[in-house]
Amino acid sequence: MSFVPKIGTSIKRQLEEREDIVLSPYAARNKHSRGRRTPEPEDTCDIRLPYQRDRDRITHSKTFRRLKYKTQVFLAPTGDHYRTRLTHVLEVSQIARTISAALCLNEPLTEAIALGHDLGHTPFGHAGEVTLNELHPGGFRHYIHSLRVVDFLENDGRGLNLTLEVRNGIVRHSKGREDIFPSRMGERAITLEGQVVRLADIIAYVNHDLDDAMRAGILGPNQVPSAISTVVGERHSQRIGTMVRDVIVETLTADDGYLHISERMLAAITELRGFLYEHVYRYHRVHDEFEKAQRIIGELYGYFLEHGLVRRVGGEWLEQTENREQWRDEKYAHRMVCDYIAGMTDRYAMAIYEYLFLPTPWSAR
Length: 365
Ligand code: MG
Prior knowledge:
Layout: H1 11-22, H2 50-59, H3 62-66, H4 85-102, H5 107-116, H6 125-135, H7 142-157, H8 164-171, H9 192-215, H10 226-232, H11 236-254, H12 263-281, H13 284-307, E1 310-313, E2 316-319, H14 324-327, H15 330-343, H16 346-357
Antiparallel strand pairs: 1-2
Helix pairs in contact: 2-5, 4-5, 4-9, 4-11, 5-8, 5-9, 6-13, 7-8, 8-9, 9-11, 9-12, 10-12, 13-15, 13-16
C-alpha cells in the first residue's frame, strides 16, 4: 500500500489519517494532543500538524541558534571537530528518530523534544550549571530552565506556546548520574517519544564524549575497558548502532508500551558513563578549565546583582538601569541575572567578562 497525497483535501487531515495507519498504538498522535498552554488556531497554511509546528518553532528560535557557541565538554573548543551543544542536540535527534522510526512512533514529536531538550543549558556546560545552582536562591537545573525558555523567555518573553507532550518530554529528559531509567514511574515522560529522547541523550553523549576525548588525546583507542567494548563494540558507529538496535529489539519484544533495554547493554552504558566521569570529566586539564569557567560565571553573577545588567547593543556595552526600583527586589534581581547568564554563549560570557574585569590597554597615538 502506498500513500499518494491528494490535492483538494486538507493536507493536515491527510497527515492525521496517515498517522492513524502507520503509527504504533503506543505512539502519540497529534489529534490526541493535550494542547497548548494558550489555545491558538491550527496552522493556517494547512501544511503542518502541531508537533511539526513545535519542532519548527524550536529550530527557528534564537536560543537554538546560540547552542552552537555553547560548550558540550571541552570549553570553547578551538578545534573545529569537537562537539558543541548544538551538534550534541542534532546527534540526539538523529538517534532518537532512528529509534522512533523503527518503533513506528511519532517522529516530529521525537524531533521536537530532542531539539528542545537542552535549550536551557548555560555557557560552559556543567560548570555553568553547577555555579548557577549554587548562586541562584531557587537553585538551577538545565532541564527545568529548558522549559522556562520555551514557556517564558523565547519570542521576546512570550514563549513558544508548545504542546504539553513536547514540554513534558523536555523537562523529563535529564538523568545526571542517576538511573538511566527513572525508578519512579512519575518521573518518566508521558509519551514513549519522550522516553526515547531521554535514552537517546545518553547514547549520544557517552559515544561522542568518548570520541572527543580520543580526539583531545585524553584517552587512547585501547583504553576503553574490554568489558565495555566487547558488549558495545570497538568503533564509534558500531557502538551507537549496537545500543540503538538493543533498545529497538528489546522494546519490540516486550511490546508493552514502555521503552526497554537489555540488562547487559544497560550495564555497559552505565559503566561507560562511569568511565567517562573518572577519566574525562574529572581529568585535570578539563577540570582546570571547569574551575576557570565557574569563576567567570560567579563574578558576572555578583556584578550584575549589584550593578544591574550590562548588554551588548550594536558594538557597545550598555548598562540597563531602567528597572532600578524593581532591582531592589532581591528575588526579581536574582531571577533576571540567572536568566541572563543562562542564555549566554561561552564567547559572549567571556567578552562581557573581559569588558567588565580586564583593563583595556591605551592605544598609542
Ligand atoms: Mg542533552
